[in-house]
Amino acid sequence: MSLLDCVEKTTGPAPAWSILWLHGLGADGHDFEPIVPELLRPGWPALRFVFPHAPVRPVTLNNGLPMRAWYDLKNLDLDQRADETGVRQSIAQVEALIARENERGVPSERIVLAGFSQGGAIALAAGVRREAPLAALVGLSTYLPMGSTTAAEATPQGLRTPVFMAHGSHDPVVPEGFGARSRDQLRSLGVAVDWHTYPMPHSVCAEEVRDLAGWLGQRFQAG
């Protein structure tokens, strides 16, 4: 499998940690580049941010138009929303990027897997299936795809990974209820989910970035 093309930003020499960040539907790896300076805090270790570009594929609910997507959307129902073939392909591509970070000297326990919307769905789905747990998972304005299948395939190690989830209360694209249902499902499996809501649409806000920075800082201290 060839590695996805990525945008990379490092915050210092010899990064000790990596943050792999997956964009949303129709965006690309440049979408969250601007978050790096907003997120950083004094005293953090050197980080490598990796922003991969999703493959281009036709998206059924967008009239079959090809765009960057981690999976096809064929149905708006939460349980049927994500195309299983695409989800599994994207999980494999994320695993290849994690393996590259391991080869670069960053162990899995110092890798954060984050994503927004579709990217967050893949981050959650990949993270709870891992045999070697990551430092943390971040799912913004998203949901757990293939809920019952993902629950059945989750590993004890993956379920030990702490999760930060955040959602807009005015989100017309991925309703807040989808995120809340996924939060509850993850918690029922024993996952420690830190849940936040903000009065925003399908987007990211400054308060959310501040809360995420504080939460990530705790992970870096623990690691």
UniProtKB/TrEMBL annotation:
InterPro entries: AB_hydrolase_fold, LYPA1-2/EST-like, PLipase/COase/thioEstase. Residues 18-214 form the Phospholipase/carboxylesterase/thioesterase domain. Coiled coil: none annotated. Pfam families: Abhydrolase_2 (PF02230). GO terms for molecular function: hydrolase activity. Keywords: Hydrolase. The keyword NAD does not apply. Belongs to the AB hydrolase superfamily. AB hydrolase 2 family. This is Carboxylesterase. The lineage of its organism: Bacteria, Pseudomonadati, Pseudomonadota, Gammaproteobacteria, Lysobacterales.
